[in-house]
Amino acid sequence: MVDPINLTDVASYVLSLIEQNKLDEAAAYLRGLHPADSAEIITNLDADEQAAVVERFDPPELAQVFSQMHEEDMLDVAQHLDVEALAEVLDEMEPDTAADLLGELEPQAAAELIEQMDEAAPVVSLMAYDEESAGGIMNTPPASLRRWMTVTEAFTFIKQNYHDENEIFYLYVIDRFGRLFGVVNLRALILADPYQTIEEIMNRDVVSVRTDVDQEEVAQVLARYDLLAVPVVDDTERLVGIIAHDDIVDVLEEEATEDIYRLAQVGEDAEIFSSVPRAIRNRLPWLVINMGTAFLASSVVAYFQGTIAQVAVLAAFMPIVAGQGGNAGTQTMTIMVRSLALGELQGRDTWLALWHEFRIGLIHGIVLGILVGLTAWAWQRNPMLGAIIGLAMLGNLIVAALAGVLVPMLLKLLRIDPALASGVFVTTATDALGFSLFLGLATYFIRWLL
Fold first, then answer.
1. Angle between helices 59-66 and 71-78 (to 10 degrees)
2. What is the C-alpha separation between 340 and 348, in angstroms, rounded?
3. How much is the CA Rg of the chain, to the nearest whole Å?
4. Which residues on neighbouring strands pair with residue 150, listed in sequence order?
């Protein structure tokens, strides 16, 4: 068993070797680490330090390190290598990772590298697909069985075509046109009679995905059916690739980060220590949009300024109604966005979700309405004020529940990412309607408030 290392201490040690100009020793030490640890340490080195270290790695070693890096980090490190050296590294990488790196380069630079590569064909074929689709993240298909093979012939075929135990997830069966025909469980193959044919023991119900399916949906398929890998087919059902569970780990992190950032209206590539101009580009546009919607809520308040002027204490309670509505709406919206992302909800489920959240909003509204109403009554010695804010709270929490369902569903229908824009509209709805309910009731019953 290998215990995790203390990366901080290891990075300090590597840096000390580099500062002492013991570059060969530093590179040798990094090569002895797990590629994931080496990747993180190299990523955090300065450009000159990176260049000095990576040039001492052999192409297969550097390919393993690259496979543990994000695309942007791969690009930074790759710039320290000349075309021939980088082409050798790309030949050693998995085709999907190599395609990701080439996709980050300028077209001319990518073309030069492809020309220098010995194994460019599988990589080029992947670059034709959207990088966030099944085609963009798949690897070349494994050697596949034919249905007329006997079990004995299948074992011979496996020994001839598979050289790493980590390659064998499932044994796929194709017909003479390369179309996916079935799948064989390795345990079933071991237990079968040597003279049985593959067709007799294979399973024809193969879970597969099309090349144009979004990578997030691929992750959902792997999780739903508890698969180690999923085959990828084209429009004619030809087996064109395979996506293993470890290819999906980075996708899950990427999609989760993307959704979290979008819920906060922050750009996908935002980082805590990104440059100030880049951070401003990521955040400022959404702040401007939020400011525009805030003016809508403010216009509601302005409409009732006469009421507020007569009963100034209303201003103290306005944030309570709007704030609680915003919080409740965000709760519902977050659950809805997650459920939509995971494929747990479809358009046909809208009414069921509305009824479910309406009941929750009603109960929340009654409980919080009573609590805030009693507090307002005790604080201001005015039972009518307590009744008004209690009713406003009830109404706004129901509005929050309905908006939290309808906004993401409507955006999904319009093919707009619900995670990106839901927050703005839900908050606007709860603010504007919360103020309208509270101040509208106060205006109607104003003679009992004076």
1. 150
2. 12
3. 30
4. 197
**Residue 144, Ramachandran bin (φ over 0: left; ψ between -120 and 50: alpha; else beta):** beta
Q: Report d(CA 303, CA 298) in Å as an integer.
A: 9
Per residue in 285-301, pLDDT (tens digit) is 767 777 777 787 788 88
User: SS3 for 198?
Assistant: helix
Q: By three-state DSSP, how is residue 205 classified?
A: coil
- Assess contact for 83 and 110: CB atoms under 8 A: no
153's CB contacts (< 8 A; 6+ apart) are none
Q: DSSP secondary-structure letter at 142?
A: P
CB atoms under 10 Å from CB of 226, counted, come to: 7
Segment holding 181, helix H or strand E: strand 180-184
The residue among 342, 357, 355, 441 whose CA lies nearest residue 400 is 357
Residue 10: per-residue pLDDT:
83
Q: Please give the single-letter amino acid code of residue 302.
A: A
Residues 117-156: pLDDT tens digits? 888 888 888 788 887 788 888 888 888 999 999 999 999 9
Q: Report the alpha-carbon distance of residue 54 to residue 340 in Å, rounded.
A: 43
Mean pLDDT of the chain: 83
Quick check: 376 and 389 in contact, CB under 8 A?
yes
The string of DSSP letters for 98-152 reads HHHHHHHS-HHHHHHHHHH-SS-HHHHHHHTS-TTBHHHH-BPPPP-EETT-BHH
What is the spatial order of strands in the sheet that 171-174 belongs to? 145-146, 171-174, 180-184
Q: What DSSP state is assigned to residue 349?
A: G
- How many angstroms separate the CA atoms of 376 and 387, rounded? 9
- Residue 342 CA: distances (Å) to CA of 70, 75, 155, 244: 24, 31, 39, 19
CA separation for the pair 99, 121 (Å, rounded): 11
b or e along 166-198 (b: 16 or more beta carbons within 10 Å of the residue's beta carbon)? eeebbbbbbeeebebbbbbeeeebeebeeebbb
What is the Cα–Cα distance from 366 to 368, expressed in whole angstroms? 6
Residue 2: pLDDT band (50, 70, 90) is: very low
**Residue 315 backbone phi and psi in degrees, to 5:** -60, -30
Q: 18, 52 in Cβ contact below 8 A? A: yes
CB 390 within 8 A of CB 397: no
Which tens digit of pLDDT belongs to each residue from 184-237? 988 888 888 999 999 999 999 999 999 999 888 888 888 888 888 899 999 999
Token pair for 410: 């409507």
Find residue 145's DSSP bridge partners.
173
| Average pLDDT value for residue range 252-260 | 61
* 182, containing H or E segment: strand 180-184
